[in-house]
Records
---
Amino acid sequence: MIIRVSELSPEGLDVRDARQFSTPAFTDPEWRLDGVDLHVQPDGDDVTVQGTIEATVPLACGRCLESLPTHVNVLVDVRLTPRPAARDDLELGADDLDTDFYANDELDLGALIQTETTLALPMKPLCREDCRGLCPACGMNRNLTPCECREQKPDPRLAVLSQWSARRKG
Ligand SMILES: [Zn+2]
Ligand SMILES: [Zn+2]
């Protein structure tokens, strides 16, 4: 959804319906935009975008790799400024992390939604807190298939014990 900044009215624009997007907001068709409530407000040459995005993204569990549809509620508070012509003009401080750019009078709201949603995704999602993950030896999903790998690995403390008891018997 491309917004022409010069055509924004002084009151701004409310986007409250995902169906307002002629093209899907997400490039990945498996990502689903569940809800959007954004206010696009011109502020001089700048534009602010504030509100919320709800989306469901098919992630994979960081331990067992099972598919894990993840629902995210994204709080959006972004200021966009016209992209400077030359790179030398670019002086962004640490305070300006939430500053983005638009160019040629065009604000791509779909791209903004995709970026903000991506930033909100968990780095290492887990299907459940105590997910047992994949066995590093045989690759089995230990939530589904208990494997014997751990038990087969000789425990050095047990080895010492068995030597000790063998000596006692002998
Ligand atoms: Zn898992
Ligand atoms: Zn195993």
Note: Helices lie at 109-120, 149-152, 156-169.
---
Amino acid sequence: MLTRSAVEAWLAPRADEMAELLTRLIAIDSENPPGRELGRCARAVHEAMDVLGLGPDIVELAPARELEEPSIVRGSVGDGPKLLYFHGHFDVVPAQDRRQFTAERRDGKIIGRGSADMKGGIVSMLYGAAAARDLGLLGDGRIVLHLVCDEETGSVTAAGHLREAKLIDPRALAMVTAEPSGGKIWNSARGALSLRVEVRGLEAHVGQADRGVNAFQHMLHIARPVENYAREMTAKGSRLVVGGLFGGGSNFNVVPGSAFFTVDGRYDPDEDLDRELDHLTAAVKEAAAEIGAKVSIEVTQRQPPAHTDASHSAATALAEVVAEVEGEARFEMCAGILETRWYSQLGIPAFGYGAGRLEVAHGPDEYVDEAAMRRCSAVYALYAGRMFAA
Ligand SMILES: [Zn+2]
């Protein structure tokens, strides 16, 4: 079996090439929200994949929200029946400073917006796939790359399309996404449930305030039990924010006729989102009934958690390869939501594994370590070899 050193020998002379590609991708301001320059970024990824012989094509998506030319770049190497997915996203969170779009390469790092999350991850995956092919690791397998454009705002447009259009084959052996796990293996991720609670009252001018129904007062009454529930869930390991957004009213001298607040939750994989929604809805409705308030609840986001058992053969194989390359392998739950869910829902073992570090991912000093980026490429290539040989 091919070892780590052979893959590293393939990658080492390509270090500058990888750094240059990452620099080019960082320079494209694909901030999401709002979803700028997605078409241009897709074309740059397409060009890089073409040069590497990864047979790319661009799937143009129907206009959605404010996304500019939403699209998916796909590619593949190998033509055997065994299938492995490499999945990534080329949108980035908004920059703290415009200078983040000019990458800096120093001290073995590449610094810039998206270096960790996850344009650096994309570079690792492209070179990992190319290495697997050049080194004869594909056997009777095939790596399919899916690079999407709207992960930072829920990924419903692109990853949602992959699933709707049946572009994800449930028979795949596994999926890996290059999210910034810092070399750990994320085999599970939280689910998300977001609500917007609208409270309706009756407007009246301050001079006739007694004729109005104050939606703000009603909102205060309703928000309290929701906040209590949020505390209970937090004690059990989930994370909730009540009132991340709130507002209403039309003027300081008018009894507010409307008010709203949001509830956003990230739930541990063992929590059932349907049950959570029932609990939150009941808390709101009961509190509203106590004071005769009129409320409506809108579910603005609902993403199930994702989980692949660490004892699954696809997980142990990945852990072996990671241990070979990194010296150790550790499974962890990702604190956020991951695109692994689109695959694990279909029964595909799915993992987050990438070179970037989560603690810098969305911040002003985002960077990726170049050696870590190459180690990830090596892991991806060797993982393909291991899965296809099994
Ligand atoms: Zn990401």
Note: The mean pLDDT is 96.
